[in-house]
Specification:
The protein is an alpha/beta fold and about 260 residues long. The protein has one domain: Rossmann fold (3-Layer(aba) Sandwich), CATH 3.40.50. The protein has nine helices and seven strands. α4 links the parallel β4 and β5. It is globular and about 55 Å long. About 35% of the residues are buried. The model has no long low-confidence stretch (mean pLDDT about 95).
């Protein structure tokens, strides 16, 4: 990767996104911050020393927002790092989940990063070396009750990452998947936090996740999942999926308990 990044990052003002941006500061010559709230983006911009920082407020599932991102990136001389970090979740049993929420999860977590990548790919291919990093989840490896639509979206994002990486293997663009575990941000509601505590699930700070992201960025691994326990569980889920079926089945009463809080 070049010494200085030219970055587009979605979900820039969220807990993990904000911390990633702060760590990219001084290592970037251009940062395009994309998010839903202009005030939060402006507050983040004020903290940065990078001189060329731009803000785009909007929902990346909307075509005009993606067009605005592409137009600005092109105007500023291109980009060499796209971080598809925006995402939404919903803690609900699938049968009871609002169909509109299911569509929103798929739109934001899967369709929007695919379409934004499609739009920006010509600019990325113009660079001597470029990266696309898709922020997934440990639930992109392990389907989990209460998060069925979310898991599906992250499984899909991981499949997109793998296929596109192989498709672009003869170009200058590398495509990779970064998978946090539970994180202490506003992304998770209080009942999710309580569930994680009762189940003994580790929860990382946004700062720790961002540090892991920067370490991942500096190396060439195609994928990274945070946590030794979680990584081992991912391995078991691939080789002996019946074992996670049994283990997660035993957790189901606790999952359902916190759904009703």
């Amino acid at each position: 990767m070049s010494q200085y990044y030219k970055v587009v990052i979605t979900g820039a003002s969220g807990g993990i996104g904000r911390e990633i941006v702060k760590r990219l500061d001084k290592k970037a010559e251009l940062i395009i911050l994309v998010g839903l709230t202009k005030d939060s983006l402006n507050d983040l911009k004020k903290e940065l020393q990078t001189k060329r920082v731009f803000i785009i407020e909007g929902d990346i599932s909307e075509l005009h927002v993606r067009d605005q991102i592409k137009s600005l990136a092109k105007q500023e001389g291109g980009i060499n790092l796209l971080i598809n970090n925006a995402g939404i979740s919903d803690y609900f049993m699938f049968e009871d989940q609002d169909p509109k929420v299911i569509m929103d999860i798929l739109d934001i977590n899967l369709k929007a990063p695919m379409l934004l990548t499609h739009s920006l790919l010509p600019l990325l291919k113009n660079e001597p070396k470029a990266e696309i990093i898709n922020t997934g989840s440990i639930f992109g490896y392990i389907g989990y009750p209460g998060f069925t639509a979310y898991s599906a979206s992250k499984f899909g994002l991981r499949g997109f990452t793998q296929a596109l990486r192989r498709e672009l293997s003869d170009t200058s663009v590398n495509v990779r998947y970064f998978a946090p575990r539970a994180t202490k941000t506003n992304f998770n509601t209080s009942n999710i936090t309580e569930m994680n505590i009762e189940l003994g699930n580790a929860m990382d700070s946004p700062e720790k996740v961002a540090d892991k992201f920067m370490n991942f960025l500096s190396h060439n691994k195609f994928e990274m999942s945070i946590g030794l326990k979680e990584s081992f569980f991912v391995f078991i889920n691939k080789i002996f999926p019946k074992l996670p079926d049994i283990a997660i089945g035993k957790q189901l009463p606790i999952v359902k308990k916190y759904l009703n809080k």
